[in-house]
Design brief:
The complex is a heterodimer of chains A (95) and B (269). Chain A contains two helices and no strands. Chain A has 95 residues and is an all-alpha fold. Classes of the chains: A mainly alpha (95), B mainly alpha (269).
């Protein structure tokens, strides 16, 4: 009888632990997904943007300076989305 | 093969677990502990980042009085001024003489962020001042107040009208356009400025910590020490990359501030 109750207690403890662990697991999975998903769009966007900028600079080398500045601006705007994803990752994982 | 490696890794134990986020970014306070004026490593780095440009320009200025031929430190100061003038103000504000009035603000901003970021890769410091949210937030608020102030000063309340009700839009669309413009101009701009700088520097810091931690734990991990040069090579590569990021983020922050100021000076475009 006492063995049974000990067993029940252990199971209960384990269940409690796994509940905590499940929460941590869900947070970690969510954090990973958040960052991974947030990186897709800006990845495509920055690739397209820089590709087009290189094309523009190759066609008109004399406007390279202007194109470069605009490219950096565009990268900054596009990248912000990925960085917000990174901040969400930090918030989910650590806070 | 992989199972064997995992077994070895498990055997060597988890003596040095990966540090938590608190260990990575929170430093104990050396002075005024527990008060709002707690002085820790980040505050010290911020102070140095403030002092270095001031000293640089004071020395360069005193040199310039002695002789007109630039030498040493004076060259560095002149290159910085020229960079901010050509790459930031001319590009973002244009040849407007009003734009040159923002040269001191933009140079201070650029150098403060750059020196603060560079501490992220300077050994023994290894923490960028902008990897804590406080610095980027204050800088972004400064940029925010500046561009709104410039708009109000140059165009009065017409600036707000121009910003919220852009001309050339059908009247009925203002229901849609005005809230979007309100959010994007007055809320998202400072938020994204601050988050961009902060997240870039924090991500760089965590990257460097990850590879440094991996290297040391492999070196002390028995037979796994033979693959420790791989993360070490990554660590060196990422240190170089962080140098680039430190410069690029200072440039982008200053450039965006200049773009916002330029937009407030000439709301037509």
């Amino acid at each position: 009888m006492s063995t049974l109750s000990t067993l029940a207690q252990t199971v209960a403890q384990q269940a409690e632990l796994t509940a905590d662990e499940a929460k941590a697991n869900a947070a970690a999975t969510g954090a990973g997904l958040a960052y991974g998903l947030a990186a897709i769009g800006p990845g495509i966007g920055i690739g397209y943007l820089v590709g087009q900028a290189v094309q523009a600079m190759a066609r008109q080398p004399e406007s390279a300076g202007q194109v470069q500045t605009t490219m950096f601006l565009g990268i900054a705007f596009t990248e912000a989305l990925a960085l917000i994803g990174f901040v969400v990752f930090i918030l989910l994982k650590f806070v | 093969m992989f199972a064997a490696l995992t077994a070895i890794a498990a055997e060597s134990g988890d003596e040095h677990p990966f540090p938590g986020i608190r260990e990575l970014v929170v430093w104990p306070e050396a002075l005024f502990e527990g008060t709002a004026f707690g002085f820790n490593k980040v505050a010290l780095i911020s102070l140095i980042a403030m002092a270095v440009p001031v000293v640089l320009f004071l020395i360069a200025g005193s040199r310039a009085k002695q002789s007109a031929v630039p030498r040493g430190v004076q060259n560095l100061a002149e290159v910085t001024v020229e960079f901010v003038e050509r790459m930031i103000i001319r590009q973002a504000i244009g040849n407007d003489p009003k734009g040159m009035a923002f040269l001191p603000l933009l140079i201070s901003m650029f150098l403060f962020i750059l020196v603060g970021n560079l501490f992220g890769i300077i050994p023994t410091a290894h923490f960028g001042a902008n990897a804590r949210m406080a610095n980027p937030v204050i800088l972004a608020l400064l940029a925010w107040v500046t561009f709104i102030g410039v708009g109000l000063k140059n165009h009065g309340l017409g600036y707000l009208k121009e910003a919220l009700f852009p001309p050339g839009v059908p009247k009925a669309l203002y229901i849609l356009v005005t809230p979007i413009e309100l959010i994007s101009t007055f809320l998202v701009r400072p938020f994204s400025l601050a988050v961009r700088l902060f997240a870039n520097m924090l991500a760089g810091h965590i990257l460097l910590v990850t590879f440094a931690w991996l290297t040391t734990s492999l070196v002390t991990g028995g037979i796994l020490a033979i693959i420790s040069p791989l993360p070490f090579a990554m660590l060196v590569a990422f240190t170089g990359f962080e140098l680039l990021v430190a410069f690029l983020q200072a440039y982008i922050f200053t450039l965006l501030t200049a773009v916002y100021i330029g937009g407030a000076l000439h709301p037509a475009h």
